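[Q] Does anyone have a clean structure-token version of this?
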Amino acid sequence: MADAAPDEDPAERAAINERLWAHKIHEDSMLFQRGNLFLLAQSLLAVAYSATASASGRENAARVMCAFGIALTLTWLYVGHRHLLYDLSLQRRVAARLPDFAETDRTCRQRGLSALPCIVYGLPSLSIVMWVVLVFIT
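[A] Here you go.
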């Protein structure tokens, strides 16, 4: 264990490992909660856009909503990117302390990419494409 001190008490080591694992679980949960929040905000904005765009003479208001949607998506992308960098750093620490996690992580990564970059970059990318297309068709 790279992060463990050689003179570390086994009870202290177990407590540190437990805190580190709880922190990893918390960060994973935060990533998905933030993603859900941004998806909900995007959905509500899309509904408001559709109601506004369907009303005659409200094209400028619909374009403003599109601009807000683009800004919201860029914020989502930035927040997700920062969280992913933090999560990868934490994941390396957890792998260094917990051999079971390291083995599982190594096995899964041999099969392909992690799903986290798809969630962090894929969903906001689809959203920004939607808003850009909506700007041009409004």
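[Q] Thanks! Anything notable?
[A] The two ends are 58 Å apart (CA to CA).
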